[in-house]
Amino acid sequence: MKEAEELKKIVREKYSNIAIQSDKTTGGCGCGCAPDDVVDYSVFSEDYSQLKGYVPEADLGLGCGLPTKYAFIRPGDTVVDLGSGAGNDCFIARKETGDSGHIIGVDMAEPMVKKAKENAEKSGYGNVEFLLGEIENIPLPGNATDIVVSNCVFNLVPDKSVAFSETYRILRPGGHFSISDVVTDGRLPEKLLSEAELYAGCITGAMEENEYLDIIRATGFNDIQVMKKSKIDIPASILDKYDDTGEFRNSGAGIYSITVFAKKPHN
User: Fold this and answer.
1) 3-class DSSP state for residue 82?
2) What are the beta bridge partners of residue 13?
3) Lower CB density within 10 Å: C or N end of the chain?
4) In angstroms, what CA-CA distances link 214 with 17, 146, 197, 207, 234?
């Protein structure tokens, strides 16, 4: 496994390039877009196009769920989207909060933040803002938000314990999160996992589901619920290249998209 700072550099550069390239194409490249060895990872994405508040320019096909669907957003809520990309989930959340709400997107890739700000300005959303920052060091004060959402981002964070601790810190007592992410059931072969770090951001750092939920529990969250779980079918082209021995296909292990809900206690 690569060192944390090297992983962050890979992720930052990759998603910066996605933001830049999206301005030159008519659509997103899907989760895990690779510059040279392009693979279609649209198998991770869910359809946003029918949701109220949808902004096509903000949808780069980088998610693996619909976290806002299970976020129970109310008018006037403050919502923070961690790893907000071009603003896709922020604009969906903004539709739920209305003009009285406050939406804050946080992303580590400066070109993504720039693109999100442009999308917000085009849409005339004065109550949506975007900040440059890392999930392991969120640039917000404690007890700053009612709800946190995130879409296929925590698996990209090397230290998930710190990321969930930061999520806990910025939530107000009684607040909650809805996070879509990628987890595994069983161990992935090291070769597949290491190559995924370079080519498939949505698998990078994926851990076993029980370990993932244990981190959330140890952070202090309660009422933890897996709201949705879907198996992800890895394309044969990837398995043929990185699982040539059949270790993964014969192991019974699987890769899943899950959406998890949890609350910060009132005291």
Assistant:
1) strand
2) none
3) C
4) 34, 23, 23, 11, 26
Instruction: Say if pTM beats, i.e. exceeds, 0.85.
Output: yes
Residues 143-197 pLDDT 10s: 999 999 999 899 888 899 999 999 999 999 999 999 999 898 877 776 666 654 4
How many residues are given for the chain?
267
Question: Can you name the residues that pair with 185 across neighbouring β-strands?
Answer: 254
Q: State the residue range of the domain holding 50.
A: 4-263
Domain count, the chain: 1
pLDDT tens-digit readout, 9-28: 777 877 788 877 776 554 44
What CATH code is carried by the domain that includes residue 57? Answer: 3.40.50.150
- Sign, Cα dihedral of 69, 74, 80, 85: positive
At residue 64, the 3 state secondary structure works out as coil
Helix (H, G, I), strand (E, B) or coil at 165: helix
Query: Which pLDDT tens digit goes with each residue over 65-116?
Result: 999 999 999 999 999 999 999 999 999 999 999 999 999 999 999 999 999 9
Cα–Cα dist 43/194, whole Å: 20
Give the list of residues 6+ apart from residue 39 with CB closer than 8 angstroms, or none. Answer: 32, 199, 200, 235, 237, 238
Q: 91, 74 in Cβ contact below 8 A?
A: no
Closest CA to 55 of 101, 115, 113, 97: 115
The Cα–Cα gap between 21 and 144 comes to: 33
